[in-house]
Design a protein that fits this description.
The chain has about 140 residues and is an alpha+beta fold. About 20% of the residues lie in helices and about 40% in strands. It is built from four helices and six strands; from the N terminus they run H-H-E-E-H-H-E-E-E-E. Strands 2-1-6-5-4-3 form a six-stranded mixed β-sheet. It is globular and about 40 Å long.
Length: about 140
Amino acid sequence: MPLPTAPAELYRHGLQLLLEKDVPAWVDLWDENGILEFPFAPPGRPQRLEGRAAIADYMRPYPDHIDLHDFPEVTVHQTTVPETIVVEMRGVGRLVKTGGPFDMTYIAVVTVEDGLITSYRDYWNPLAVQESGADFAGADR
């Protein structure tokens, strides 16, 4: 079965891969020169990752720290640029280290070109990573 290439379908497919903890397959959805940005990242956290390899390094330990169970709320908004979508969503699960709940809301602006993600701006709540067990990216990155 071929991968979806329309931005909304590709994005939803990526969410399913994250639920399946298939980070390598999620990274494969990225263009070699894709850019992942975190505009609200606190000091000591990456604000910009350039290239598929950097994104893979960042995401590799994600399932060891956050056990995602569901994305119960996902709303995709099409923009006037067909390749770009704005997504409002909520991810829920548990923090692996503590067993505590994980509940995060996100807004993402995502651009897909030629069936691959080229740009992803992730507007997440940096206060949530202050909770013990949520530190999957490490402050030294």
